[in-house]
């Protein structure tokens, strides 16, 4: 049996545990009961989450004395919108919840971000629990309290910071996850090691095949490793006033690609391409060696993620980067690598080099 791992996110007034164990969702109700006396709970999920995963959660909540209602949105990034948040309010408000009623996010990052936003805004704020079901949401999206939705102008442009009261990760649910989604999660794992952990990156180069083979023991360790990296960054800078921007490595290019492609590139695929472009920019600025660039391209390829073949209007991609939330004083702030394991932020990158980096994706 794989041991339970607990990673504390120590935020003043908003501390919580991330618990990781195969089979954990059977105990989700009991874990939540230790944090809440509420009589009701609401589960938000999407139309692709296997029925068995949803009913196991409802059963676990009921066994702990929660009368649970399920609210469902259609699956897909294109539904991460204000319109679907309104539909969730329509489903939840008639249930007569109160300010203590916990809302459970059961799904990938789309569900986690939307549920967090609903929880931040309904009745001016109710508690919520992250029960991530994709690798991407286990290693990244469920932690740190960034919640929100997309706008036609760009990714995640509407939202709020709202921390969950617990993150409950059951890696067994990854057995039903499509391979494309598993690969997407590896993009954020690669990102975490690139910005903070050179040794972790070397381990990932060696072991990435175990993730793709859905080795649950390995995936449990991988999730624990990644959430520990993310938790330390979020603790140091919960509202992204400084070093939290490092978690955006690959996202300035990535969000532009995701949005311009109308989400035909998934978040993980867009971040992979974004990391390739940001890596190229690092080489062009003499921060990173070509040998390190080869290692990065190789591990992204080994994860089954794209490094080129971009079929989008390059000017549109560059233009869309102006909507990045890290823009300050009209300047785009790029997260770059100053070697593997170390991130830096630069706001002095010539646009010609940005274009060259985007060209390298074609
Ligand atoms: N808040 C954050 O810090 C943060 C971090 C990273 C990404 N994100 C956001 O997360 C989103 C991407 O999340 P994602 O990659 O999880 O995508 P997703 O939520 O769209 O899930 C991908 C697909 O997998 C399906 N699925 C989920 N779990 C499943 C399971 N166990 N079995 C079978 N199918 C399953 C979903 O229904 C969906 O169709 C983006 O919107 C991104 O902006 C947020
Ligand atoms: O938690 C963070 O901080 C991140 O940047 C994590 C990213 O992986 C994630 O995609 C996040 O939603 C991006 O945030 P945004 O502020 O650039 O919209
Ligand atoms: Zn991301």
Automatic annotation (TrEMBL):
It is an enzyme of class 4 (lyase). GO terms for biological process: amino acid biosynthetic process; aromatic amino acid family biosynthetic process; chorismate biosynthetic process. SUPFAM superfamilies: Dehydroquinate synthase-like (SSF56796). Its EC number is 4.2.3.4. It comes from the Bacteria. The keyword DNA damage does not apply. Residues 185-327 form the 3-dehydroquinate synthase C-terminal domain. It is found in: Cytoplasm. Pathway: Metabolic intermediate biosynthesis; chorismate biosynthesis; chorismate from D-erythrose 4-phosphate and phosphoenolpyruvate: step 2/7. Its cofactor is NAD(+); Co(2+); Zn(2+). One of its GO terms (molecular function) is 3-dehydroquinate synthase activity. Keywords: Amino-acid biosynthesis, Aromatic amino acid biosynthesis, Cobalt, Cytoplasm, Lyase, Metal-binding, NAD, Nucleotide-binding, Zinc. NAD(+) binds at residues 109-113, 133-134, 146, 155. Transmembrane segments: none annotated. InterPro entries: Dehydroquinate_synthase (IPR050071), DHQ_synth_AroB (IPR016037), DHQ_synth_fam (IPR030963), DHQS/DOIS_N (IPR030960), DHQS_C (IPR056179). Residues 72-183 form the 3-dehydroquinate synthase N-terminal domain. Zn(2+) binds at residues 188, 251, 267. Binds 1 divalent metal cation per subunit. Can use either Co(2+) or Zn(2+). It catalyses: 7-phospho-2-dehydro-3-deoxy-D-arabino-heptonate = 3-dehydroquinate + phosphate. The keyword Cell inner membrane does not apply. Belongs to the sugar phosphate cyclases superfamily. Dehydroquinate synthase family. Catalyzes the conversion of 3-deoxy-D-arabino-heptulosonate 7-phosphate (DAHP) to dehydroquinate (DHQ). This is 3-dehydroquinate synthase. It comes from Humisphaera borealis.
């Amino acid at each position: 049996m794989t041991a339970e791992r607990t990673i504390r996110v120590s935020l003043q007034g908003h501390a919580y545990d991330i618990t990781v164990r195969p089979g954990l969702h059977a105990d989700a109700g009991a874990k939540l009961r230790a944090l809440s006396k509420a009589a009701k709970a609401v589960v938000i999920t999407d139309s692709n989450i296997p029925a068995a995963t949803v009913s196991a959660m409802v059963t676990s909540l009921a066994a702990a004395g929660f009368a649970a209602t399920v609210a469902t949105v259609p699956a897909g990034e294109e539904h991460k919108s204000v319109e679907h948040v309104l539909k969730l309010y329509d489903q939840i408000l008639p249930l007569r919840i109160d300010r203590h009623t916990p809302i459970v996010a059961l799904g990938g990052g789309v569900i986690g971000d939307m549920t967090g936003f609903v929880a931040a805004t309904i009745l001016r704020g109710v508690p919520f629990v992250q029960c991530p079901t994709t690798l991407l949401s286990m290693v990244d999206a469920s932690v740190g309290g960034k919640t929100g939705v997309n706008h036609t102008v760009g990714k995640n442009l509407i939202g709020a910071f709202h921390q969950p009261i617990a993150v409950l990760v059951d890696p067994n649910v990854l057995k039903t996850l499509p391979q494309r989604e598993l690969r997407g999660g590896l993009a954020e794992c690669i990102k975490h090691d690139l910005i903070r952990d050179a040794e972790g990156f070397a381990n990932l180069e060696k072991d990435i095949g175990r993730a793709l083979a859905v080795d649950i023991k390995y995936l449990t360790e991988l999730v624990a490793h990644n959430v520990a990296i993310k938790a330390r960054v979020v603790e140091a800078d919960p509202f992204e006033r400084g070093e939290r921007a490092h978690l955006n490595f690959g996202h300035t290019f990535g969000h532009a690609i995701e949005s311009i492609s109308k989400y035909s590139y998934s978040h993980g695929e867009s971040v992979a391409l974004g990391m390739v472009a940001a890596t190229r920019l690092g080489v062009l600025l003499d921060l990173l060696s070509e040998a390190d660039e080869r290692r990065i391209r190789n591990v992204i390829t080994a994860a089954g993620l794209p490094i080129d073949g971009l079929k989008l209007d390059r000017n549109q991609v560059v233009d869309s980067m102006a909507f990045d939330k890290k823009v300050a004083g009209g300047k785009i702030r790029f997260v770059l690598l100053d070697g593997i394991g170390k991130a830096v932020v630069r706001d002095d990158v010539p646009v010609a080099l940005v274009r060259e980096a985007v060209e390298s994706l074609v």
